[in-house]
Specification:
With 252 residues, the chain is of the alpha/beta class. It has one domain: Ribonuclease Z/Hydroxyacylglutathione hydrolase-like (Metallo-beta-lactamase, Chain A, 4-Layer Sandwich), CATH 3.60.15. The chain has 9 helices and 15 strands. The chain is globular. The two termini are 25 Å apart. It binds zinc ion (ZN). Zinc ion (ZN) binds next to loops.
Length: 252
Amino acid sequence: MRINTIGNNQLIFLGTAGGRFTVFNQLRKSGGIWFMINNNLFAIDPGPGALVESIKHKVFPNKLSGIFLSHRHLDHSADINSIIESMTEGGHKKRGVVLAPRDATETDPVILKYNRSNYTLINTKEFSVYDIDGVEIQTKAKHKHTVETYGGIFADRFAYIADTSYFDELPLYYNVGIVIANVVFCHQRKGFKHMNADDVYKFIDVYKPDKFIITHFGLSFLKEKPWEVAKSISQKTGCDVIAAYDGMVVDL
Ligand SMILES: [Zn+2]
């Protein structure tokens, strides 16, 4: 089997799992989204298996310029310490920037403290712009999730809508050409602060990107075949909606 990797101005899904059951039974991988812009490599949300998946796909963590952590839930953060250790070559090289909410570094830290002097840690805030090696990362409003969570816009090329309940400003904030959203459910489930497939219609109704990619699938959504749901949304809206799969590469 051919294992995909990426070159400059591409991203790769090292995982498309969402929700406890899918992630912690590894029904899909959960290594996050990795991208390269201006020949700089970045990782978003390195969940369980990120280290193994990154090396398998030849996006080597010791080449990373930065890591963006949306929030501290384990399906997003479980491998972040291993990735940091690899990025800094076990502390032998002081390099790299980690963007993470304060909640993930202080309140209930998922990022260990002992090696923080080996890289630059920045606590992400709402409506901020960060420049890492010439690649601009923007945050918008805090998401409506159970812990402090931010999505991002990366070099104005793609948006990542991390875990959140849908809210009306989402299509106004994340209005770039490629939009990636964590859509855990096919239909709304009471009591969960996550998007569902019906929310994708609401988003596209306000702002239609060139490409809308859904990912982070829970078990109930996997049973509904997300690629068929995506096709049906595309047909009804005229927007190119795609269900991500593990190892999928996207040109930026
Ligand atoms: Zn979460």
